Amino acid sequence: MSDATSQPPESSSLTDYDPATGHPRPPRREFKARGSFVTRCEGCNLPELNCLCPYQVKADSTAQVWLLTHSIEHYKPTNTGRLIGDVLTQTKVFTWYRTAPDEELAALLEDPRYAPFVIFPDDQPDYADRVVDINAVHAVKQQARIPVFVILDGTWRQARRMFRKSPYLDALPVLPLRTERETRYRLRKPASKSHLCTAEVAIELLRQSGDENAADVLDDYFDVFNDSYAESRYYRKIAQPTAAMQRLLDRKG
To answer: Is residue 107 part of a domain?
Structure first.
């Protein structure tokens, strides 16, 4: 994410600046979507009825996740990309701009310590020469480099536009996610059960690259988020911890 010192001027409204980067953004109408009146926890942004904070558990991983997030996703409480940062402290979040990359992202992409892979389907022939498989991730580990999963955080349509309109990603190897997993995400209706949400993509990549513990923690945290948010939509409090909740509580000790 952008430097923490980058803050909007005190005289300006916070709604005129991107929440992840501090960069100016076009004015938007007041948020009036369903649930906008609900009192939310300042820590996890879930309705206080089923706050997620007691179940936040940190996990270490060899691989890192960098999210290139469409600006609209920052406004969506149902966005799962932020769950990754709650679990993996080295996660970085960058807001996607069509005209130019985030300066920090541009610098990191040139840093030889990292081996970034852009996560995207291999369904078009024009970038077939860039496509690799998960073995490439294991190979860079042997070279003492840090594998990085660059995930395009947005809808499928937004992600495709981000991939095509970001020339600074053109030199990166393309890593398609191969998995039999079907989405368990309940808060938005996917076009297909094979279309995983952002957190689920990260979970599967971590698991396949050898970071099983981090994948397990994030998977449980995702399930807790999924259940808690779904129940809150009907103003129902989860009375007893679910299995995923209990596993996370046990990890906290």
So the answer is: yes
